[in-house]
Amino acid sequence: MRNNFININRYMAKRVNVIFLAATMLCMVFTSCHSSKKSGGNDRPVIVESVKVGKLHGKEKKIVEEALSWMGTPYRYAGSSKGKGTDCSGLVLKVYEEAAGVKLPRNSGKQAEFCKKVKKKSVKAGDLVFFATGKDAERISHVGIMIDGNRFIHASTKKGVIISELTTPYYERTFRMCGRVPDL
Prior knowledge:
Elements: H1 2-31, H2 58-68, E1 80-81, E2 85-86, H3 88-100, H4 108-114, E3 116-118, E4 128-131, E5 142-146, E6 151-156, E7 160-165, H5 169-174, E8 175-180
Antiparallel strand pairs: 1-2, 3-8, 4-5, 4-8, 5-6, 6-7
Helix pairs in contact: 2-3
């Protein structure tokens, strides 16, 4: 009888540990990158083949091509590894480092400060786009790389590295600015 009681206690302890681990992982996923949970389903899939990099030249082309090579990389808070996991600012940091040899700050707010602000109508491929997706509607908490006048590539907390459109209601609502990295 005592052995059965010990086995039941071990079984229950394992279940509690598994539940605790699962709850911890969910908390990490839902609190990372300060993204709103309302964004789910707002991203319309964009076919990668529809991105025409042939019309681009120089660093713009290199930046867009490098960004596209990250497509499908899963989201990972504080990550910046192609194919393994990245967050939004890690993606931007690595793409600019690889394609243009430019060292950017690590977080999206600092990246916005680093850039020269440009009007939405003047945006071009390779420019950055910034959003306030967290609780503070003024604090920049998300970044993407423009691939044309409307579409941008970014690391979504739910879908990993994807292409989205600025004209999506969620991104129109959370948009804060476009920026051009100096010397590009």
